[in-house]
Amino acid sequence: MDKNKIKEIGKHPYFRYGLILLTGLFLGWLIFSGNNQKQSSSQTAIEEAHDHGAEPTIWTCSMHPQIRMEEPGDCPICGMDLIPLQTTGSGDAAIDPNAIQLSVEAAALANVQTTIVSRQNPVKEVQLYGTIQVDERLSQSQTSHVSGRIEKLFVTFTGESVRRGQPLATIYSPELLNAQQELIEAAKMKDLQPALVQAVREKLRLWKLTDEQIARIEQSGEVSPLIDVVATSSGIVISKNVNQGDYVNTGTILFNIADLSRVWAIFDAYESDLPFLKVGDRLEYTLQSLPGKTFSGRISFINPILDPATRTAKVRVETANPGMELKPEMYANALIDAPLKQYNNEVVIPKSAILWTGKRSIVYVKQPDTETPSFLLREIELGPSLGDAYVVLSGINDGDEIVTNGAFTVDASAQLAGKRSMMNDEAGRAVTGHEGHSMNGTTPASTAPPTGHEGHNMQAAASGSEHAMLAVQGLCEMCKDRIEKAAKSVSGVTSASWDIKTKQLHLNFDPVKTSADAVAKAIAKAGHDTDKYKADKATYDALPACCKYRG
C-alpha cells in the first residue's frame, strides 16, 4: 500500500472516530482497574480487622434503646428499622469506661457548657412580697362620749386630713342637757353639799367637757344640748362610720384616723424562708407604683404564728414616710441577702447543672486531660437553695469542671448507651419501673459480658457457695434483666448471669438457704421456661412482644 493511500485512510472521519473510541476505552480500563484494586485492599483490611477481634456492630431501635441485636432488622416492639449503636470509644486510656463521650461537634451542637466550681461563702437571696400598711400604734378611733344625734359633721369623706383639736362633729344630747342643769342646781347648794357639786363636775369631765367649759356653765347659768367631738390626733381619716342625722350611743366609733408619717411594710415569708430571717436584718424593697426608687429598713418583728391558709408568717419593717409617698395597700417587693454562716467555704454550683430524679441529685463532671470531651455522672448531696444556685454538701470537689448547660443532652446520650444515667442507678439497671422498664419507658441493657463457666466456679469456691447452670428461654436484653432479677430475688442467691447466646444461666447460691430447683421455679413464675419448669400461659402472654420466645 503506497503512502498516499495510507494518508487517505488517516484523513477518513470514520478512522478518526474509531481511534478516539479505542483510546477512551483504554483510559477507562486503567482508571476502574485502579479503583477496584483500592476497594479490594480496603475490603481486605476491614475483613482482617474483623478477624483480629474488632467489636461486632450492635443494632438498636431509636425509639426503644433497650433493644440490642447483633444483626440488622426490625424492632420487635414498634417495627422500625434498627440502626447501628453509636459507640464513643476513642481509645483514650484516661477516659473512664463509664463516662459519656461526645465529639467536639456534637457538644457544640448541643450547646454543652461547663463551669469550674469553687468554694464560696454562700449568701441566700430571699424574695418577699407584701403591702404597705398603717402603723397600728399611730391609729386612733374617734368615739362619741355621749348618746345623741349627729347634728353636724365637719369631716365628710374618707381620706381627709385633720389636725389635733379640730372639731369633727356636733352631737345633740338630751343627757348632756340634763347634766348641765344638775350642775347649775348643785352649784346653788355648793356651801351645803360641796360633794354633790364635785360629782356632777366629774360626770361632765367624763363626757370630755373641759374645766373651762364647766366653769363657764356654772357662772353663766346657760345650758346647751350640743357638744363637739374634737380630734385627739392628727392624721388621715381612713374610715368614716356615721352620717349627719345618725343616732349614736356612748362609745360609738365615728371616725378612724391614722398618722401616716410612719408606716409598716408587711411581707409574707414562707416557712422555708424563716430560718434565714431574723429581727434586725436589713432589707431593701421596691414599689410597683414608684419604679426606680428603692426603700430600705430593718426587720422589727416576725410573727411567731403561721397563717394556716397561706403557710406564711408576717414580717414587719418600719419605714419613715415624711413625703407621704408610701400609701397603705401599695404592693412591695423585697429582697434580702442572708449569709449562711453555717455553710461557709462550701462548694456552690448553678441550679442549671443539677438533674433531679426522686431522691437522687446528679451532675455530670467533665474528665480532665482527655482528647475527646467525656463526662462522668456524679451523685451529690445538696444543701440549701440560693435561688439560682445550690450549696453542695458532698459529691463535688473544689476545681471540678461540671456541665452547667446541656446536662439533659449528656444524660440522654448516657441512657442510649446503656450507661449509668439519671434514670439508671446502675449501668443497664433501671431505678424504677415494671418488668424491666425504667421511668421513661426504656431499660438500657447491661453491657457487662457474662463471665465464663470457670470464672463462676472460681467465684463460688472463693465464697463457699455452690455453682449451677440452668437452661432458661429468652430473646432480648429485657429478658436478661428479668431472668437475673427473678433469680436474685431468691434468698441465698449471691450472683446470677444469663447468657443471651447460649441461653444458660450461671448461678451462685448458698446451698443452705436455697437450691437450683427453687431458683428455676422463681424464674418460671417470672415468665421464662427452664429445663425443669414451664411458665404459665397468663404470665407468658403478659410479656412484651420482644420477649415472646415460644414459636
Task: Describe this entry's structure for a reader.
The structure is a single chain. The protein is an alpha+beta fold and 551 residues long. Helices cover 25% and strands 31% of the residues. The strands form eight sheets. Strands 3, 5, 20, 21, 22, 23 and 24 form a seven-stranded antiparallel β-sheet that branches. It has a six-stranded antiparallel beta barrel with strand order 6-15-18-17-16-19. α4 runs antiparallel to α5. The longest helix has 39 residues, at 13-51. The protein is elongated, with a radius of gyration of 46 Å.
Provide a concise account of the structure shown.
With 551 residues, the chain is α+β, with helices and mostly antiparallel strands.
How can the largest sheet be summarized?
Answer: 7 strands, antiparallel
β-sheet strand percentage:
25-35%
CATH superfamily of the largest domain: RNA polymerase II/Efflux pump adaptor protein, barrel-sandwich hybrid domain
User: What is the count of DSSP helices, taking H or I runs of 4+ residues?
Assistant: 11
What is the CATH topology classification name of the largest domain? Answer: OB fold (Dihydrolipoamide Acetyltransferase, E2P)
Nearest-integer average pLDDT: 80
Q: Care to count the β-strands?
A: 30
CATH architecture of the largest domain: Beta Barrel
- Write down the CATH class of the largest domain: Mainly Beta
Percent range for helical residues? Answer: 25-40%
- Uncertain stretches of 5 or more adjacent residues: 37-53, 428-463
Tell me the count of domains.
5
